[in-house]
Write a structure and sequence with these properties.
This protein has eight helices and six strands, in the order αββααβαβααβαβα. The chain is of the alpha/beta class. Helix 4 packs parallel to helix 6 and helix 6 packs across helix 7. The radius of gyration is 18 Å and the shape is globular.
Amino acid sequence: MNKEPSFGYWERYLYLIALGPILWLQGKYVRRVTPKLPDAAGPREGASGHGPLLRLLIAGDSAAAGVGAASQDEALCGQLVQRLSQRCTVHWQLKAVTGLDSPGLEAMLTSLDAQPIDVVVLSIGVNDVTNLIAPTRWVQWQERLVTLIRSQHQPKLIVHSAVPPMHGFTALPQPLRWFMGRWALEMNLRLSKSIRDDDRRFFQWPIPADVSVGLATDGFHPGPLGYEAWAHGLNDLIVGGDLEP
């Protein structure tokens, strides 16, 4: 992951004072003109493949829901299951809602039945950035989510997908794109550092060097190529992980 200088509290505060009116107006403009793409069509649970059993949960926001792809086969869940099912019997479920932030994800996960799950993939953060949740507070939310997931599902592996590279979202004008990108990167840096000593949690950075590659037509979500790169990295991480109890 690209190591940028820390985007600390006082720096964020000063930029908000200096650029606040511009950022607010640009945010309103983006919400008005950005196309509203639907969730990817298709089932959100099922079983596929052959071999050892792998129970998979993907949970999170619009990227987890597959916005930017026409079907779940082209989205993250479908592409990941297709890869994993080549060597495992995958029992999978997708729990994702467009617009979800970390508190919303906690509420959704709380409502799920307690059951054993081997691998949990989390996609969350963009809406926390747009809500200006402080990076330190956001990391605390990820700890809360992990505590909840472990108490309900006893997973062998939890994967935190990086907050997407908002500095490459072509739907965002400058300086909003730069500001949100720095905020997202600070979240990623802090989270990756916080889980360094936990061998049952991984941080995945599935972003190509050119962050605009693989975007959907809205300039905000992944398209099928973006989901393909994401699923490929997840597959390698899960297959290479130690899933023994």
